[in-house]
Structures are given as structure tokens and as C-alpha cells.
Amino acid sequence: MLCQNCKTQTATIHLTEITNGHRVETHLCQACAQKQGLAIQTQIPLNELLSTLLSVPPEAAGTPESPQDQKACPRCGMTLQRFSKETLLGCPQDYDVFEKNLLPLILRTQNDRSEHCGKVPATAGQAQEKQLRLAQLRRKLEEAVRREQYETAARLRDEIRKLQ
Amino acid sequence: MNLSDLSKQPSPWLQESGPASEVVISSRIRLARNLAGYEFKPCLTPSRQQEILETLKSALLSVPSPEPLFFIDIEGVSALERELLAERYLISLPHARGEGPRGVVIAQNENFSAMINEEDHLRMQVFAAGQQLEKCFEQISQVDNHLETKVQFAFHPRYGYLTACPTNLGTGIRVSVMLHLPGLKMTGQTEKFFNAARDCNLAVRGLFGEGSEAVGDFYQLSNQVTLGVTEQEIVQNFSRNIVPKIIEYEQAARQRLFEENPEAVEDKIHRSLAILRSARLISSQEALILLSHVRLGIHTGRIPDIPISKVNELFLHIQPAHLQMQAGRALSPDHRDILRARIIRTALCAN
Q1: Where do the structural domains in chain B lie, given as residue ranges?
Q2: Domain ranges of chain A
Q3: What is the CATH number of domain B3-254?
Q4: What is the 3-state secondary structure (H, E, C) of B142-195?
Q5: What pLDDT score was predicted for residue A60?
Q6: What pLDDT digit, counting tens, does each position of B248-291 carry?
Q7: Contact call for A92 and B36, based on CB within 8 A
């Protein structure tokens, strides 16, 4: 489909507007959409993303002041409602207290990842280091299988078995 | 460290032009950390903030460093001095304009700075000229390792290093390169560059000016994903895949410009230099656009008599806080335009 404005480029942005029950479709190329101020934002502002992800918890949709929102962290007093406005958490414990609500947000902003596999503090202890090393290897294994690199995958599988 | 002296000198680390500096102005790696056992910023009382400030200050000052380290109490310096530090990228604007006990530790040559009580308890960064991300990473890792012998950072078995905002979770690493892309701009390919960056989960920002509007073809490119990948993967993906590709495209665009319409590009370059050498009033926006053309002229051999360090220096010195520190008083925007024009004229005519 060609852009209905310049009629030369391929239309990649399709907008459907419904005003008073009347439906209007617009098909534009990137350049024309941008000229009309319709280009997609390259980054969704974090607070916008937060309010969409947090304000309507899947099971408790409805009133903005649902019990979910008002649950406070026993350590710092942070609530989800406050977090969705300020975008900052109140203490390390919030990650566990609000885990159910934070996880979708973490997955969304971290490219579907939710397990750390980078540096581990020297003080974290061997057990934790081993857990992290395993998570890292499993992720590499998945990647190798996805890319059909079976020799690498076999080597990673052996490494995982040895560690376990 | 005397802050008013800073306003007269360039950032020492940017004096030498690093690898690939035609396209990559500088590299930066930042780590975000929080002390275990303390609340994050929104829930800290001033006295707890003061405790964090003392703890991290003494830990940071004990870091073995070839450069002398200085501590600056942000509440103890003037608003103008805070803005000066922000213009030099030593602190962020929110840190400059924030509230409560907070500080920064800076290395003499300004290639390292560590903000205490910014959005996270500790935000430290290492800079280098040109594309030297792996060197930056090595240096910041050494600092981080040393700090971990002195303090305990908040760490979660699943999520890694915990940060006040979940977007920094895991490694807490932000890898960025400051890019000069006049070729892509003049050949109308910046949109393509933005889209490619977005597809790779990278953030693009204008290097100067507020918001995302880039002034003068300068961009900052940084990673957005901090969790589920190792620090090394993020750094190497930048230094071995992403940055070399951008350099290649930008160089190809420049070559095309000079092959297809050399007069038009040369006219732009020399006209820009002429305006900078003669203007009596100049806004920072206009100056940045013209300096961008001059920078392109220097790197493509069209302006042989001006060293690139002079242009890099001007980028700093023409900003509002630098101008006012040099003048020794607050200046209205009109007076800044006059002083800015004079500084540029002096710098570019002396050759």
C-alpha cells in the first residue's frame, strides 16, 4: 500500500480514528507521518509505561484505588500507586513485596529478561555465584539451540551437568 | 580542586582525540549501585542520606587511582558551580538541581566521577576520548571491585544489583557513545539510524539541548537493557558490532557527499567557519550547528589549520554556566550571546 500523502513511499503507519462512530483510516509512510506529528515515539516515557502496566492489574481491574495499589511495603512504606507516579522504588525489599506487579514491567523494559547473569559481588557467596553461573549457561544453551549450533549446545549441556 | 579554574580549561581527557574520533567523540560507562540495608532515594530521611554520603565518600576516596581524587559537597557550592559540573558531564542535571545531602567524587583529569545520592546511592562513570569502551569498562570494574571490599551493595539472587528504578536493574550498566553524524544527517539517513537503534533496544538522544531534539548532528547512543545479559556482552556488542557499523555508514555517507556535490559541502563548511570567525552575537544553538560543520571540515581535511581539540574545547566553553563562570557573574541570554561570539572568534582566529 502506498502512502496516501506522498503516493511514492510504502505506507508503514496505519491509523484508525473513530470520531462519533465515524471511522477514518489513514495510511502514511514514516516521513509523512513524522511531518504530521504522527511518528511513533522511539521511547515510551517510563511513567507512561508504568501507569499502563501498573494501574490496571489484570485480576483487579476497576477502581484506581484498588487494594493492590494501597498495599504498602512493610519496610519503607512504598505503594504501587506512589511508584507509578514517581517511577522509583523505596527500598530493595520492594522487588520482593511487589514482585507480581513488577515482573511484567521488568520483562517489558528488559527485552523479556528477568534473570541477572552478570557480575556477582565477591561477598555474595559461592552458592549464589553457582546459581547465577547456571542461569547464564542455560541462557547460552537456549541461544545455541535457537541458532542450531548443536556442538556448542552439547558443550554447554555438559558444563551445566558438571556444575549441578 | 578550584571550580572556577575548570571553566577555563577543557576536559583534560578530551584533549587527546581517541580512536575513531572522526565519528565517536567520546565513550562513557556508568554503573548504578545502592548500599545494602538502606532505603532508596524516595524513602530516605536526610540523616540516612547523610550516612550514605559519608560511607560512600570515604570508600570512594580510598580507591587506588593514578589521578588525585576530590570530593565536592554539592550543597556547599553555588547553583552556577553545580551547572558547570553538569555541563562537564561530571554530574547530572537532576543531581545539580536536586535536594538533600549529596556529593560527587571527581578525578583530577575528570575522566572519572561518582555521584552520591543521585537517583541511586552511587552512580559512577568513566569517560574516554573516541571509541574506548573496553578501556572504560576495565577501569570502572576496578573501581567497583575495590568498593566491594569496603561496602556491601544491594544484590538480589534473581535480579542482580538492585536499583531504585527497575530499568537499571541487574548489571546497573549504561554504556554510551557520543556520536557526530553530519554525513547521515545531510544525506537524510538519520531516521534509518534511529529505527535501527530502536530495533537493537538502544536509546538515542541529542547530545546537546533539552529533550530528544538533537542540535548540530550530535547524538548519544546507549543501551536500554541492563538485565539478563552480562556486562561484557553489552560492552562488546557496542564496541565490536554496533559502533563499527555506525562508523562505516557515517563514513560512507560523508564520502558520498563529497563525491556527489563537493562544492555544496565545502561551501557549508567554509561558510560556517566564516560566520564563527566574524559573528558578534551567537546563540548556543547556532554555534553548535556551525561547529558541527567545522568539525566535519577538520576531519575531512578541508580545514587544515584548526586542531580538533580547539573545537572540542569550544563545545564546553560556550555553554551558559561556563560563560558565566568566566565572566565571574550572572549574564542575561543577550550578554551570553555576545561573550560566546567573542570566545569563538578568539579561539578560531588565533590560528
Answers
A1: 3-254, 262-348
A2: 1-40, 46-109, 126-163
A3: 3.30.590.10
A4: HHHHHHHCCCCECEECCCEECCCCHHHCECCEEEEEEEECHHHHHCCCHHHHHH
A5: 45
A6: 999 999 999 999 999 999 999 999 999 999 999 999 999 999 99
A7: yes
